[in-house]
Amino acid sequence: MSAPAKKAPRTVPLDGDILRQDLTALGSRIAPRDELRKEALVLIKGAFQNARGRIKDQVMSGKLHGLEAARQLSAIQDSVIQVLYDFAVKEFYPPSKKDASEQLTVVATGGYGRGELAPGSDVDLLFIRPFKPTEWDQHVIEFILYMLWDLGLKVGHATRSLPECVRLAKQDITIRTALLEARYLWGDLSLYNQLRKMFWSEIATGSGQDFVEAKLAERDERHRAQGESRYLVEPNIKEGKGGLRDLQTLYWIGKYLYHVYDAADLVQHNVFTKEEYKTFQNAEAFLWNVRVKLHYLMGRAEERLSFDAQPGLAAAMGYTAEKPREAVENFMRAYFLVAKDVGGLTRIFCKALEVQNRKRRRSIARIMPGFLKLRSNSDDFFVDTGRLNARPDAFKRDKVNLLRLFHMADTKGIGVHPDAMRTVTRSLDLIDDGLRNDKEANRLFLEMLTSRNDPEKSLKRMNEAGVLGRFVPEFGRIVALMQFNMYHHYTVDEHLIRAVGNVASIERGEHGNEHPIAHDMIKRIAPREVLYCAMLLHDIAKGLPGDHSKVGADIARACCQRWGLPESETTSVVWLVEHHLVMSDTAQRRDITDPKTVRDFVDVVQSPELLRMLLVLTIADIRAVGPGVWNGWKGQLLRELYFEAESVMSGGDSTKSHSSRVEEAKQALTVQLKDMSPEERDRQISRHYDSYWLTLDTATHERHARMLAEADKKGEMLALDAVSNAFRAVTEITIYTPDHPGLFSQVTGAIAAAGGSIVDAKVFTTSDGFALDVFSVQDAESGPFGDAERAQRLKQTILRIVRGEVQPEALFSKRPVYNKASAFKVSPRVSFDNEASHQATVIEVRGRDRVGFLHDVSTALFEAGLSISSAMIATYGERVVDVFYVRDGFGHKIVHTGRLKAIEDMLLRAVEGNKTS
């Protein structure tokens, strides 16, 4: 419950006394009640909106900070409710002097109860009556609520008697928390004081431990719902980890246990030091400033820092840079550092309270003495309530203890005590170059990084405490660093730590079904230290000028030398950091059925050992980008590239001639089609060119042969086959129809209009003039595209487009125009590569994602007179990278400079959604 109520002081933004005088004058002139209410609403609304408008102007001009604005908005709301109450009981429903039950108290709850109100927030009210409802209090409550609704406010409200308040608060933790925040607004003060007394005597007494456990569980569930991490690049400023609700949870618990009325009072109870309370104040002020400005910018109660809001918000918060992207990243880094501070405060506070207030249980240490007994440094560390604690002078006595604490916690498999974490954060200045170059400290760090237990947990602990960024200053530079794009879901430091955790989980065998090859290969990787060091350092140069892979390689060399890795291992780490993208880029952006692609990849990798490490590193890296980024299709591409490269390295396929591989594929299909007549079988085998046999496997060859034979028998002009593969997370859609110019762009348009996303395409032409195009398609959730019904609808759409009955553009217009990508600017780019393939020119097209992107680009290629033999489609958040293997009308590469320039211009116009001619 809030402190004893006092009459609210007159506020500058809205003077309640003046408004009352104006309403009294209005009442003396107007007799009809309906007309009086109508005119009063106009008067009150004008004063209310003018007062709130002045607050907004001051906030957006930088004259008023968010927290003070929230308090003034609350004060304005107080005045309006007080005036409405007085107006109702004076002019409309005066209480009977003879009826003692006609009593009513208006109480603010929730954030409004704390005296803080964001511009778009609900107004939470509790109307308290002594016992049963009366006609009088119902009329007054309805009058106030209808007036508030007519003012355009969202009002959360409840009406209860005192006994109901007590009974419901005992049953429901949410109601109990609301009453904890309850603040007197107006009406019968004695009722509020009774409620306050009953709350502490009948509700709160003896329930402190239950309340703490409930609020901590509520916090954990909220974090799970918001994505667990406080380093999400579109965080929820209110409900997310490290947001305002975490600070409020901390305050609720302190208030409930210690009966404090201000967070500053927690210092007196030794919950916070003065420095920690200052951190609390700074975090609260920053978060409120962001929240209030976010509400004003969005024009609604928006709590998520979405990509489209971040640029405007960064400017409103005063962050500027030559490049708008840099201003956003600077602002978001400031946000994440504050969220990190909030995490530190809530961790120390909540875990300390958890230890202090939980019921003591018989611990393993008491049942089995010596189980958690420390075998070294017993003067510096000890186990306290199942967690590792440190003597107050442990770190001053020996700086290496700042690493040894986390190393020991990992070795023993126990948590770090909140007191020890607090002491660590106060001792960060002890981490200097002497400690960074200390052999023992680096040995401990390397053992934690490569631990077979849970290196991710150790790294997160060290990062939260600030030790990781201090001990490895190269890592400290990227702590809380955000990349303003849709592809990366986490800050750079969070991404790197999660990537290390992914390697560890693969090594523990937790993803054997998803990553069968990596699961087997990681057992053959030695030394393990190379893989783990490369994983932690692969993005260490993000945010620095230049190619982050090359710059990161130089940083990695310095780190590995400092950590004590032998030169041979350091060289391998440096190579992996410099080339950590080569496998994913090759798999997703090159045709790996082209022998030249595999040979070029092998020339870069060279070593089977590095190939194994690169496979695991690539999988762990992609998985750490964010939820939903990894899928079975990417896994399939990486597996295929791995096997092809391993085969070439071992001298396998390279010894086979091109013609012998084609012949083997034909013979394999002949066996599978033994039930066909010899004439039909020979026809199906003879109509394909070599590229078809070299690109697809026997099972696919058989499926196609039967599909084509059936279509020819029925005389179908268009046949469609759809086969979903859950493991690869794609639906393979095969189109068989007479070939004609522009067919590829028509089909891609139909698939886009149907809501499909093409991730790969192979284009084949039969010797008798039919097109056999194979598209790997996913849905919006990066899963298989569809069932039989969806495939049939797609077939009808393709038929309509091929026949000219409808244009793809007309279907695009029926889909929502806005998407997240519209918040970003992606510079279009077209590049040509005549060295990547022996037979085709490789064109790479980049631009911002939108519906119809692939259709527009493929249409431009068709209008340029080019034929597409294969296409790889990759989307990285808001950025699309489409790669096409093309030939001219004579089946040759495009080499003439003028022709290349003309094609580039057409493609750039297509990327922007403009006509190509």
From TrEMBL:
Domain HD stretches: 492-614
Cofactor(s) listed in the protein's UniProt record: Mg(2+)
GO biological process, one term: regulation of nitrogen utilization
Keywords for this protein: Hydrolase, Magnesium, Multifunctional enzyme, Nucleotidyltransferase, Repeat, Transferase
InterPro entries: ACT-like_dom_sf, ACT_dom, GlnE_rpt_dom, HD/PDEase_dom, HD_domain, NT_sf, PII_UdlTrfase/GS_AdlTrfase, UTase/UR
Catalytic reactions on record: [protein-PII]-uridylyl-L-tyrosine + H2O = [protein-PII]-L-tyrosine + UMP + H(+); [protein-PII]-L-tyrosine + UTP = [protein-PII]-uridylyl-L-tyrosine + diphosphate
Entry EC number(s): 2.7.7.59, 3.1.4.-
GO MF, one example: [glutamate-ammonia-ligase] adenylyltransferase activity
Domain ACT: 732-813, 842-917
Function: Modifies, by uridylylation and deuridylylation, the PII regulatory proteins (GlnB and homologs), in response to the nitrogen status of the cell that GlnD senses through the glutamine level. Under low glutamine levels, catalyzes the conversion of the PII proteins and UTP to PII-UMP and PPi, while under higher glutamine levels, GlnD hydrolyzes PII-UMP to PII and UMP (deuridylylation). Thus, controls uridylylation state and activity of the PII proteins, and plays an important role in the regulation of nitrogen metabolism.
Family the UniProt entry places it in: Belongs to the GlnD family.
HAMAP family reported for this sequence: PII_uridylyl_transf
Protein name: Bifunctional uridylyltransferase/uridylyl-removing enzyme
